[in-house]
Amino acid sequence: MNAFSLLFTYTAARLVLWMVLMFAFVGLNALVLVWVERKVAGYVQLRPGPLHVGPQGLLQPLADAVKLMGKQLLTPAAGDKVLFWAAPLLAFTPVMVCFLPMPFDPRFNPLPMNLGLVLILAFSGLGVVSLCLAGWGSNNKWSLLGAARAVAQSVAYEVPLLLSAMAVAICAGSLDLYTIVGRQGGWPWQWYGVKNPLAFVIFLICAVAETNRAPFDLPEGESELTAGFHTEYSGMGFGIFFLAEYANMVIVSGVAAALFLGGWQGPFLPGVWWFLLKIYGILLFIIWLRWTFPRVRFDQLLNLSWKWLTPLALLDFALAVVMAGMRI
Amino acid sequence: MPTLDPIAMLGDRSSVRFEPGPTEDKMILNMGPQHPSTHGVLRIMLELDGEYILRAEPILGYVHRMHEWIAEQKTYMQFIPNMGRVDYLHAMAWNWAYVGAVERLAGIEVPERAEYIRVAVTELNRISSHLVWWGAYLLDLGAFTPILYAFDDREQILDILQDVTGSRLTYSYFTIGGVYNDVPADFRERCIKFVSRMRSQLPMYRDLVTSNAILRGRCEGIGELTAEVARRYGATGPVLRGSGIASDTRTSEPYGVYDRFHFRIPTYTEGDAMARYRVRLDELETSCEIIEQAVANLPEGPIATKISRNFKPPKGEASMAVEGARGKVLVHVRSDGGPKPYRVKLRAPGFSNLSLFPELAQGTLIADAVSILGSLDLVIPEIDR
Amino acid sequence: MIPPCVAAMNATHAVAMDYAATGVVASVSLTAETILDAVAVLDREGYLLEDVMASDLKEGFEIAYHFSLFEGKSRLVLRLIAPHDAPKVPTISGIYPGADWHERECFDFYGIDFTAHPNLHYLLLSEDFEGHPLIKAETARKGLVDLMPQSWLEAVGLAKPQAPKTATPENLPPARPGAKE
User: What per-residue confidence (pLDDT) applies to A53?
Assistant: First the structure.
């Protein structure tokens, strides 16, 4: 351990170690999430899900990955090649940056910064640009509709998302996720999710909308737009979008766990396990939503955001300022 | 005698041909023929302003198999299997319509046992058709789970009907003069068991799905159809009953032994997609009632009147209307006294129901168009024949 | 039983039919000039348009319009004959918009020209199809006497009413049903 903690003092080494760990984490998570999603979908739909590939279908995600990698990469002839292939790359890259300020464990902070929350929210907004490029570069009217929907949806749901996150930041007095988690405690009544439940609910709804998950999966709208913005992608192109979607889900769940569920705080177990447990709890909830509800219509989606969530989030922000003033 | 001017009466018709070529601020988009929500091979040309539909024109014929020409080449008995392929989801209704028309023409009387069996299997088939519609409609709206619950229930029906007819989907069970095969000994108890299972599932479907706020937002107020417009377009079935007109062929012109059964005709007056949805869900209950009564009163006896090998009905023409899951199925048969029909006309309810679509879809969003199409319950092979 | 509204149509023949044998209660024969007014009468009475079908007969193309009310056994068939060489019939889609597609289908299969139809091109057959498939060969065509029931033929005067049958050798029925004398 001594050599390890010696290495730790060098910032560069810390960052490299962190990036390696995060790549591994994201990759492993994608595999696990694919399996969890398919199993949950199966049991909700009265069937067992993957069962044959490995014990209880545990090797199914590997089989899927191999299949996707083996497929031919097609580019639409009349589309814009550069934009078409820039889109998946752009979908994946911001994801890695977003993991830098994620508070897994109090002992291991790769890059102490005081604006972690802002960094995550800023870079997750970049994902929309990739959807736009995908929709335009495909030279397909259905993809274009998907991209247009994605932009409007993303813009609409950014506002309440930010407001609800800010409400917590005001209460905690900091934009650094490590500090925010530190201000909470191990027990549920010490979490901000219980002290400010409205912000929690708004944040969750906006999180589902920002990651384009059902019931807000209009840009991908399978039964209306064939496959929306990723209609024309085959093989690994589609695989990267898929991966980015799951990584986005993990990020957004991580932020929710840190802001509202107390992050690494919890009795008996070391912090990182609690954090992972809470992330997976929220992920299960998001997956459960997908297989239960039908899709909202586009104007209903925007109405929900602009007419309901934004005013409520503003109200909640005002409440949070009062609460912070009263030192709750 | 003042004659009416057809040109003046046309007014502003929405089914006018699309002009080729681009326009300044409108987009022409093809929905189909390969599309997850067009329920078969249907192509709809949409003229869009953003996501709003300015005009819609369905383009048919991708599954056109010229059944009416085939009918003139085959003998009366040989054509029966074709009827199962016209609307494969409610094949029994088409079987009945065709066979009923020929029986009317030839004056053949069907034995009582066969009549009761016909009612029972047609109602079972109606339930399985409505279950497919329900699952597929919700799939179009983005709910991925109900279709699997619906298919689970439907498997029970398919098992029962497989033991009766030998097929799971495209039944050719009816014959001129009765039915082809007798029902097995456990038919009655299996039907009763199925009906009680179906009745226990329906409350869950109502609570989890029909009352869901998102579903109601996608269906209420969408595709409003007045009774007058429905009549002028020839709409029948749940589309008509969702607009307030309590007209069902089983009660308006009873065929077979339907006049001996007691059942409700569900009708709703709103005329929107939600009303049509509710009509069909209530029809599941109605069909359960009819099946119970049919298997309770099933008489003994022969299952078919024998007809000659070289069956030649007398010259004449006959029409038979049957209430299918989608609406009024009508088959017209004209005979010249020979072994093959002279003319067979198949009137599909979906044909008239789909012709409503351009008018219903005007000014709505694409998502609403998908919802309207689903609420019309279309099976394209029936429309194209 | 012929419904009373038929009296307002300028019908050539109006024949009551046996519902149990044919599925219709009355058959009304019209011409291309009188069909529009007849359909308008039915629209005022609240009839539903069921379908428009065509058949290829010796006399020409016979177009049959089936209407019925919402309740009761009330199916009416309006029929008219259009000559083979110039099959022009006015469209009824101004009164019943549902007839639009039914008439297009008749055009597909028989080439009937519905004047003033807004959209008369192939519906079920492909755009570049040529011809009209259900038109029969000259030798295969049959006439009304071969296709209509005896009671209808007697009512419109195409067949002599037959004397009541008694089982004596002199009153043997003709060798083929519906054979002309």
Answer: 86
Asked if the model's pLDDT at residue B32 lies above 80, the reply is no
Percentage, residues of chain C above pLDDT 70? 89
Q: What is the dihedral of CA C1, C6, C10, C13, to 10 degrees?
A: -10
Give the model's confidence band at B10: pLDDT under 50 very low, under 70 low, under 90 confident, else very high: very low
Tokens encoding A104: 């897994």
* C176 occurs within a structural domain: no
**CB-based contact B110:B305 (threshold 8 Å):** yes
Contacts of C90 in chain B (CB under 8 A): 6
CB contact at 8 A, B33 and B52: no
What residues pair up with B58 in beta bridges, in sequence order? B44
| Interchain proximity C149–B9, CB inside 8 Å | no
Indicate the domain borders of chain A: 18-325
ipTM: 0.88
In the predicted model, is pLDDT for residue C89 greater than 60? Answer: yes
CB contact at 8 A, B274 and B220 = yes
- CATH fit for domain B67-384, picks 3.40.50.720, 3.90.1150.210, 1.10.645.10, 1.20.1180.10: 1.10.645.10
Is C166 contained in some domain? yes
Ordered DSSP codes for B176-226: TTEESSPPPTTHHHHHHHHHHHHHHHHHHHIIIIIT-HHHHHHHTTSS---
Residues of C whose CB is below 8 A from B332: 53, 64, 66
B1 Cα to chain C: minimum distance (Å): 9
Residue among C22, C98, C125 whose CB faces B352 most closely: C98
Angle at Cα A242 formed by Cα A238 and Cα A244, nearest 5°?
Answer: 115
Indicate the residue of C22, C95, C115 with minimum beta-carbon distance to B316.
C22
Q: How far is B228 from chain C (nearest CA, A)?
A: 9
pLDDT band at residue A12 under the 50/70/90 scheme:
confident
What are the distances in angstroms from CA B90 to CA A83, B11, B246?
Answer: 48, 37, 21
The CATH number of residue C56's host domain is: 3.30.460.80
> SS3 helix, strand, coil % of chain C, rounded to 5?
25, 25, 50
pLDDT for A286: 92
Structure tokens at A148: 């247009």
Task: Write phi, then psi, for C56 (nearest 5 degrees).
Answer: -105, 110
Task: Measure the CA–CA gap between A262 and A295, rounded to whole angstroms.
Answer: 31
- Give the SS3 label for residue A212: coil
Does A300 reach chain B within 8 Å, measured CB to CB? yes
- A233: pLDDT strictly greater than 80: yes
Does residue C156 form part of some domain? yes
- What confidence tens digit (pLDDT) does each residue in A156-190 have? 898 999 999 999 998 888 888 888 888 888 788 88
Question: Contact at 8 Å (CB) between B120 and B297?
Answer: no
Residue B332 contacts residue B345 (beta carbons within 8 Å): yes
Higher-confidence residue of C13 and B130: namely B130
* Least reliable range by pLDDT among A74-78, B105-109, B371-375: A74-78
Tokens 């055009």 locate to C107
Neighbours of B101 (CB within 10 A): 30
- Neighboring chain B residues of C123 at a CB cutoff of 8 Å: 60-61
Q: Which domain holds residue C63?
A: 4-171
C177 in any annotated domain:
no
Q: Are strands C13-16 and C26-29 parallel, antiparallel or unpaired?
A: antiparallel
Residue A294's nearest CA partner among B277, B222, B215 is B215
Q: In angstroms, rounded to a whole number, what is the distance separating the alpha carbons of residues B313 and A214? A: 59
Total of domains in chain C: 1
Q: What percent of chain B has pLDDT over 70?
A: 93
Map residue C173 onto helix, strand or coil. Answer: coil
Give residue limits of the domains in chain B.
Answer: 67-384
- For A215-226, give one letter per residue: b (16+ CB within 10 A) or e: bbbbbbbbbbbb
Sign of the torsion formed by the C-alpha atoms of C163, C169, C175 and C176: positive
